[in-house]
Design goal:
Blueprint (H helix, E strand, L loop, with lengths): L1 H12 L6 H12 L4 H10 L3 H35 L19 H15 L3 E2 L5 E3 H4 L19 E3 L4 E3 L4 H10 L4 E10 L11 E11 L4 H16 L5 E8 L2 E10 L16 E10 L1 H6 L8 E8 H9 L12 H4 L6
Helix pairs in contact: 1-4, 2-4, 3-4, 5-10
The structure holds 3,4-dihydroxyphenylalanine.
InterPro entries: aa-tRNA-synth_II, aa-tRNA-synth_II/BPL/LPL, Phe-tRNA-synth_IIc_asu, Phe-tRNA_ligase_II_N, Phe_tRNA_ligase_alpha1_bac, Phenylalanyl-tRNA_Synthase, tRNA-bd_arm
Subcellular location: Cytoplasm
Enzyme class: ligase
């Protein structure tokens, strides 16, 4: 048995495997089910018990030696194989391009920052609404055309469930829930049944402002909007208020800002008027206050609402509204450094 052990050891020690395949063959030849070492263990069972002690030790040593050496070869082969892989460390790194914020988000965040400075907090409401929050509580008369299917996306009729057509609905939600005074801005998506073109879309974004307290006046509204215009479009920006009509404000106005491109002289962007229309506003109609459980003799307020796409178009000189919704990276990449 001694002789067999040394024979096997010698045979094993003469080997020099070069690959994983070689190594696997060796493992099977020596340690496999019919391998040399395994067979010797079989033989070992039948030798006289007084010899077992002596040979058992030698046999176990041989097995451990072979196992260890196979492990050692394995590590060697593996480390060689990785260093043989073709790696060109002089190659340029793979260009990873980072995303950027969408221009609508950029403008929305900027608006929030501007009004936050004046004490306005963000207030949000649902996109799926009912007639009360979008129309009735805002003093829309029963037969108002905005309630028409041509203008509004209805989910069900009677009871009316619809997609909000303006963020003014969030005014109603805040009056319902919040204690006075209220000073909120409400950004969000709105939906209108409109044909899609360069100037109109069926989905767009608005931001609404509402301030209700004792003694809130039109002068407060004007000063707030002037501050906003200067922050958003530059300190030399002028504003102008034109009388207008909304069911929920009285008096109502539309605000224009002086055209930045021509400095008010007139150009193709401002259609040679020197002015650009940016928002609607007014003093909250006392009817709206009363409809929402606020005493209009004690309290007054102002409100305003604007399209975020419109502000972004003026700010970034974007001529086609559809670009905001197409997710074309060539368009979006331009806003990386803003
Ligand atoms: N809700 C109006 C719209 O969608 C915008 C608006 C005008 C909001 C005047 C107001 C406001 O809060 O006072 O066109």
């Amino acid at each position: 048995m001694d002789l067999k052990i040394s024979e096997i050891r010698e045979r094993f020690n003469n080997l020099n495997p070069k690959s994983r395949e070689d190594l696997e063959k060796i493992r099977i030849e020596f340690l496999g089910r019919n391998g040399h070492v395994t067979k010797l263990f079989e033989e070992f069972k039948s030798i006289p018990s007084e010899l077992k002690r002596e040979f058992g030790k030698g046999l176990n040593t041989l097995k451990t030696e072979i196992q260890n050496k196979i492990q050692e070869w394995k590590s060697e082969i593996e480390s060689n194989s990785t260093s043989n892989v073709d790696i060109d460390i002089t190659l340029q790194e793979y260009p990873i391009s980072f995303g950027s914020r969408h221009p609508i988000s950029l403008v929305k965040n900027e608006l929030i920052e501007i009004f936050k400075y004046l004490g306005f907090t963000v207030y949000e409401g649902p996109e799926i609404e009912d007639d009360w929050h979008v129309f009735s509580a805002l003093n829309f008369p029963e037969e108002h055309p905005a309630r028409d299917m041509q203008d509004t996306f209805f989910i069900t009729k009677g009871p009316d469930v619809l997609l909000r057509t303006h963020t003014s609905s969030v005014q109603v939600r805040s009056m319902e829930k919040e204690d006075l005074p209220i000073r909120v801005i409400c950004p969000g998506r709105v939906f209108r049944n409109e044909a899609i073109s360069a100037r109109a879309h069926c989905i767009f974004h608005q931001i609404e402002g509402l301030y209700i307290d004792k003694n809130v006046s039109f002068a407060d509204l004007k000063q707030t909007l002037l501050y906003f215009a200067k922050e958003m479009f530059g300190t030399d920006t002028k504003i102008r208020l034109r009388p207008s009509y909304f069911p929920f404000t009285e008096p109502s106005a539309e605000m224009d800002v002086s055209c930045k491109l021509c400095g008010g002289k007139g150009c193709s962007v401002c259609k040679y008027t020197g002015w650009l229309e940016v928002l609607g506003c007014g003093m909250v109609d006392p009817n709206v206050l009363e409809l929402n459980g606020i005493d209009s003799k004690k309290y007054s307020g102002f409100a305003f609402g604007m399209g975020i796409e419109r502000i972004a178009m003026l700010k970034y000189q974007v001529k086609d509204l559809r670009l905001y919704f197409e997710n074309d990276v060539r368009f979006l990449n331009q806003f990386k450094n803003w």
